[in-house]
Amino acid sequence: MPRVRPGSVVPIVAILAVLVVLLAIRQPDFLSPPSLMSFLGRSAPIILLAAGQYFVVVSGEFDLSVGSLVTAQVVVAARLIDSEPSRTWPVVVLLLAFGAIVGLVNGIVTTRLGVPSFITTLGMFLILVGAVYLWSDGAPKGGLSEAFRRFGRRAFEDVPGLGRVPYALLVLLAAAGLAVLLTRSDFGRTLVAVGGNPRTAELSGVRVWRAKTIAFVLSGLAAALAAILLGGYSGVSFQAGAGLEFGAITAVVLGGVALGGGRGSVSGAMLGALTLETLFALMNFYGVSGALKSTVQGAIILLAVAVSSMRSSSR
Amino acid sequence: MSGVLTLPARRASSGVFLALALTLAIGWLVVTVDGGQLFSLPTTVSLLHVAAGLGLVAVGQTLVIIGGSLDLSVAYVVSLSTLVAAETMNGDDGALVPAIGLALAVSVAIGLVNGLLVTKARINAFIATVGVGLLLKGYLDNGYDGPAGKTAPALVQGLGYQRVGPVPVSFLLLLAVAAAAWFALARTRFGHHLIAVGGDPEVARLSGVRNHRVLVTAHMLCSLCAGVAGIYLASRLGSGAPRVGTEGLYDLESIAAVVLGGTALAGGRGGVAGTVGGVLLLASIDAIFNQLEVDAFFKQVIRGLIIIAAVAIYARRARRKAAA
């Protein structure tokens, strides 16, 4: 086996290529530009969440609150907009602020109070789900405006060569570009150092708590973006974000990011999410029950982590 | 050596019992002012039933957490166990013993897989048990839309609803399981080894403890306890329920109970008595909120806050101790 640099994106690109070939054999239409474009648009939310989760995981923490945050955001948006188009932009800004604040609280409780992040974010999960049900009396109220929904479901039509380009894809590309730039900045490098060895980072003058807190804020912001796209695409329900946290973590692990921190790239994480979505599409085309999604996801997590822990132990 | 190791746990568990007494006192006062009765027979019985289900899971969770691991698959093991038990019994008292045996065997096997993934495949316990949980979730989602099977009437009457005075048989079962776990931790070689592995795996290994074997055993016992909880729930519900474990939040709540009881999440410190206190505390809060007719969703918010606050308090105490 050729030596692959740890955290490299080569393995995930290879897996993705194999899956795409399998898909193309079964469903040649899949690779036609319009269907490919809408597939990428549909995958945008989970890819965004994976990018957000990358920052948290590479710093050595977990964010398990993102699924419930997406649900909360969608329900809040529907109730506040209440089908009134003029409220769209203020609500979008509010959602981003909401995501950032939840991330800030997660970060501060984890770093300053010393609560392990999986307890903090699971607690946040309970709080968000409970609060959103409480606030809406058990059933989602209001409705999203068409102006809000266009981010998730509309597209630029008649683009030469591509057919239609979903707005979601453009949002994704912009966010992905920012995320990659961020990982190349001083902050991105600091974050990897923090995850790799917090003690060393601390001693070399890094404010570990601040770096980790910013990572949680980024994850919250990514969840807000994902919620805006998902709400637009699939509408309002209490199930909007269910299970997305494990989807994002699976994607991150699949993309070669080491749990416990210090290794991996944001592009790997996003490719991991794309691979996961491709795999689900493949299962769908082969008539595998959707209920088995979580089994497949569980198997992938176990396999990916086992392989990477074997490899790092044999070094 | 074991005395030194269990001392801090004893101190922490007295904390949770103090909190429990305070909660009950304040709860009694508030409920009485509100015109209700906290210690009426039905309320007490239902409190103890809630405690029995959660407690069985939490006692098992205590063992893995003391060993420095944890188990997030318990909620699915609980659901699976209700189904295996109820489907095998199929309403027939004659099938009681094989059904219980099968449900427990399946549970232990899942614990074995968890343990091997954590020790041999060296997968972070959190990820390993979430992964196994997802595998089970897929199986349950794919195979079941709703309740299935029928619990044997003898089990429903015996474990499900039989009482000794105000105390349900199921709560006595919890006390028995907790006593067994206490004995295993405090009086057996396995227990001492488990505490040592959780405290410092490297030191334990160098002093001749077979870390892997000890941890795998702890995982099997944890799953076994979840399996017992499943059988109890099947006896209450009269059938197998594919979502009962996740809807009861047994994974989170069991960890919360363990942490409230003063067991360190990092392992090596804690005990079963504290966990039982933590379980009773959570069940009491639940009962008080029910009496006050507090909104179910508000209860969940409070629960999230309690879990975070409890861990923060213990983390703070541990840090101060480390600094001293």
From TrEMBL, chain B:
<feature type="transmembrane region" description="Helical">
    <location>
        <begin position="95"/>
        <end position="116"/>
    </location>
</feature>
<protein>
    <submittedName>
        <fullName>Monosaccharide-transporting ATPase</fullName>
    </submittedName>
</protein>
<keyword id="KW-1003">Cell membrane</keyword>
<feature type="transmembrane region" description="Helical">
    <location>
        <begin position="12"/>
        <end position="33"/>
    </location>
</feature>
<keyword id="KW-1133">Transmembrane helix</keyword>
<dbReference type="GO" id="GO:0022857">
    <property type="term" value="F:transmembrane transporter activity"/>
</dbReference>
<feature type="transmembrane region" description="Helical">
    <location>
        <begin position="123"/>
        <end position="140"/>
    </location>
</feature>
<dbReference type="InterPro" id="IPR001851">
    <property type="entry name" value="ABC_transp_permease"/>
</dbReference>
<keyword id="KW-0812">Transmembrane</keyword>
<feature type="transmembrane region" description="Helical">
    <location>
        <begin position="45"/>
        <end position="66"/>
    </location>
</feature>
<feature type="transmembrane region" description="Helical">
    <location>
        <begin position="167"/>
        <end position="185"/>
    </location>
</feature>
<feature type="transmembrane region" description="Helical">
    <location>
        <begin position="73"/>
        <end position="89"/>
    </location>
</feature>
<dbReference type="Pfam" id="PF02653">
    <property type="entry name" value="BPD_transp_2"/>
</dbReference>
<dbReference type="GO" id="GO:0005886">
    <property type="term" value="C:plasma membrane"/>
</dbReference>
<keyword id="KW-0472">Membrane</keyword>
<feature type="transmembrane region" description="Helical">
    <location>
        <begin position="214"/>
        <end position="234"/>
    </location>
</feature>
<feature type="transmembrane region" description="Helical">
    <location>
        <begin position="297"/>
        <end position="315"/>
    </location>
</feature>
